[in-house]
Design a protein that fits this description.
37% helix; single chain; Rossmann fold
Amino acid sequence: MTQSKSILVVGGAGYLGCVLVEELLNRGYAVTVFDRLFFGDGGLSRVRDRVRLLTGDIRSMSPTAMQGVAAIINLGGLSNDPTAEYNPEANHEMNTVATRSLAELARSQGVRRYLYASSCSIYDVGVVDEERDVLLNEDAPVQPHAAYAISKLAGEKELLSLQDENFSAVILRMGTLFGFSPRMRYDLVVNTFVKDAFLRRQLNLHYGGQMWRPLVDVRDAARAYLVVLEAETSLVAGQIFNVVSENYRISELALRVREALRSKGMDAEINAQFQYAGIRNYRVSGRKISSRLSYKPVVSVEDSVKDMVDKIRDYGYTDFDNDRYYNIRWMKLLEHVKELIDITGTIFDTPAPKPVLEIQGRREFA
């Protein structure tokens, strides 16, 4: 890395972002967070006075956001399959087009390193198939079929095409995240199990839990970004790294979560349904980042679940049906609210007068 310790984290108020920002601050970095704040800035409450917070859209970032910045960590954009499929055009713009435009802007401003959050979902092989049930590494051919994974793979290609001796592009393909975050999510598989245990004392398995999934705790994921950020350029420039801890069948994952919950005085039944449902299924190797950068995840599923239970109670995040904890539900709610505000204007301020039109016996505002 360069001598400057100023880092720009795009999407820094999100689920992974606010955990990573705190880690960066603890390591002595000066951090600028650039975020649309769809979910507010509550996840940054513990560090709000220690960061520079800029609000805006990744598709229209000003060069001033990059002044004095040595590296960019891009966690921005839409972050899972449901939100991508809800608005494929915005998904493509944020996850693919903006990945390149942000890199071009960064290069023009002298930023030396760009870390991009991609996803192991690009390895998804769909329905369980024993002949395709193999451990995949960064060199494996991929043919993603979901909008989210397609946009992430395209973003990777756009970014890597800009790699040169003065600009280091690095791809981190993240496994399925889990664990507590101040900007909590309950729409991730382990977190969903914990939420369902709180609510219903039941863990639900789709398709019998036969599918594989690579997982990594959110704190281990944050550590991976620090390792890549601080690595010698020759080790990371133009490279792709899978960031995973272990690969689990969802059925085994449920058993591990149940045992961890029992140690916290909570019990839950496992309810397996075997009819076909749309699933994701893939196993991924994390050997490359381990051998090249000596990175090793340290947080087990069991320890993460125990920590999650304690912190959910401590933070009071027990309003489990709140849309804020579910990306697609929150996006839909914001869309609905916007439609209402477009009609009503601001809530308490006096709106500007509008001409009244008579249409088929009804009075409507123009």
